[in-house]
Amino acid sequence: MGLLTLLLLLFISSFNRANSIKSQPYNAIFSFGDSYADTGNFVKLVRGVLPSVVFDSPEYGMTHFGRPTGRSSDGRLVVDFIAEALGFPHIPPYLSKEEDFTKGANFAVIGATALDLDFFHQHNITSIPPINSSMHVQLGWFEELKSSYCKIIESCKEYLGNSLFLFGEFGGNDYNFLLLAGKTIEEVKLYVPTVIDTIKLAAESLLKQGVMHMVLPGNIPTGCVPIVLTMYGSTNKQDYDNLGCLKEYNSIGTSHNTLLREAIVQLREKYPQARISYGDYYEPVIQLLQNREQFTELPMNFDTECPGFSSEEPLRVCCGGGGPYNYNLSLVCGQPGAIACENPMSSINWDGIHLTEAAYNYIAIDWLNGHSVSPPILRPM
Ligand SMILES: *[C@@H]1O[C@H](CO)[C@@H](O)[C@H](O)[C@H]1NC(C)=O
Ligand SMILES: *[C@@H]1O[C@H](CO)[C@@H](O)[C@H](O)[C@H]1NC(C)=O
Ligand SMILES: *[C@@H]1O[C@H](CO)[C@@H](O)[C@H](O)[C@H]1NC(C)=O
Predict the structure, then answer these.
(1) Per-residue pLDDT tens for 261-303?
(2) pTM summary value
(3) Residue 354 annotated to the active site
(4) Does ligand 3 have an atom closer than 6 angstroms to the CB of 322?
(5) Quick check: is 35 catalytic?
(6) What keywords are assigned to this protein (predicted)?
(7) Range of 145's domain?
(8) Is 49 helix (H, G, I), strand (E, B) or coil?
(9) Does the Cβ of 123 fall within 6 Å of ligand 1?
(10) 17 in any annotated domain
């Protein structure tokens, strides 16, 4: 080997090392939540229990992975984009036991609630499926992982303290199941303080263990979600805002988000050394619906050219089975006969409930740079 080659190799390897230190400012990323963050746990949890799962079927995953991965989207989620931006591999779902969790784990499960199954049963809410995946169950999985982790890692507290925790979104499903059980919007809102207290206590249990970097995402604007628009549509124009969203249903999310922000302020006072951020899913979705023509360049990590969001029918679902929003309760994305739009990147909503990877990309950028997460996830090195 010539001297020049050797020097070059040394240069490249030191450059790579410097680069990887710079671009991986955390030891690991841990993610909790529901379908907005699940990267494959739900499909593993119910395999063999449920006959078939739409999230495990085409066209899920069509844009990025080219196959269904258990993500509720055509491609990557916010957690995936955040991992990429921080120089991490995609964080593996905890229930795929064969994975390497040294860079973190994702405990999120589609349909997960903040409150436990028992809570719903005690309140006679039978609309919740019997899947044990609540926030506390996910924290239990984290404890399980931690107990094996901390045997090999010298200073576990330090390790966790230098890891990023994405804790949520939680709560959206709690409200959905209450609505499905026939509760009115006003009745559902009575549960918001209970949900927030539960989330706050859980976040605090992590902070007590030495967690120093935490993002607590809020709810999305439920009244702009096509399944809600389809199930609870109104003949009264007054019920809709200028974007075509159901105002009263959005008010569940805003109540939740207001209380969550208050809880975060209290947590910051109690744990001043920790960075506790609010992760906003609400405003970015409103922004996308409102100003979609302005979002023409996808900022990050896209394999293909992005044409920008379509200016027409922003509430229209990309993958669905007909109807005013292309959302059909009896023919949903993933079922044979449901069809995906040609260019998912020009849609905001993917399947009537979840967003497209293009929309998640914008949200991730917002969080990383601090427009919707304060303080921002990307910290100065
Ligand atoms: C639930 O239903 C049972 C039986 O109908 C009733 O006795 C109980 O009071 C109900 N509980 C609540 C919290 O509504
Ligand atoms: C759910 O799982 C938790 C923890 O594993 C357990 O304590 C609880 O009893 C389970 N609940 C149900 C309804 O299966
Ligand atoms: C919804 O799907 C069902 C079942 O495939 C179909 O019969 C119906 O026509 C669809 N509705 C609309 C509005 O397309």
Answers:
(1) 999 999 999 999 999 999 999 999 999 999 877 766 555 555 5
(2) 0.91
(3) yes
(4) yes
(5) yes
(6) Glycoprotein, Hydrolase, Signal
(7) 26-293+309-368
(8) coil
(9) yes
(10) no
